Amino acid sequence: MGLSVGIASAIVLIGWLAFAGTVSTAMFTSLNDALSMMESTSYDELKVGVQLKANITSVESRGINFTVSNTGSKEIFLRNETCLWNSVIISYNNTDWQTYLIEDYTVLSVNVTGTSASFDVASHPCIKPGEEASIEATLPSGAPDILETSIVTVVFASHYGVGAIGEIYVEQYGEFVFGGESGQSFSIFTDTIG
Questions:
Q1: Which of 19, 52, 57, 87 could form a disulfide with 164 if both were Cys (CB 3.0 to 4.6 A apart)?
Q2: Whole-model pTM above 0.70?
Q3: Cα dist. 19→5, 6, 13, 32 in Å?
Q4: Strand 118-119, strand 63-70: pairing
Q5: Who contacts 178 (Cβ-Cβ below 8 Å, separation ≥6)?
Q6: Domains in the chain: boundaries
Q7: Which residue has the higher pLDDT, 183 or 142?
Q8: Cα(64)–Cα(189) distance, rounded to whole angstroms?
């Protein structure tokens, strides 16, 4: 009886070692495959295909309308059923510089860039390459009004981490007009925010 207990224990031990080896090999193989997939599509390569341009179209005392054009090769998702995927940052001077993160902006329309052909915003929740979205951002309650003498900057930060900056000088300062004629807007592309 003493010999059979030792042999049975050895067989059980060998079985457990084989099982543990198989499980650990499967785990390491899966982890290695997952890391290989993550490295194959680098985040930096993804950002290269994302290019945005922002243009401020109107400024009011409590809000800003602007367009975001997708000039890259990746589509920009605007929202899903429950939330918006991107952020808008508004900064302006009203005696002091005020900066606000706007998460509840309104997408007014999505158009093919340079045309009047538009899509239904409810069924077209993205900006594909060659399209632009018209967006309205309203200041939060309690924020001071945007004055007629303000410099206004709008940043549209996409879910890819790529943003577009639009800046407008609402009125001429002294003898100088910044950014061209009074009220003219211009756009700057940036490849990263932060």
A1: 52
A2: no
A3: 21, 20, 10, 20
A4: unpaired
A5: 151, 169
A6: 2-40, 50-190
A7: 142
A8: 19
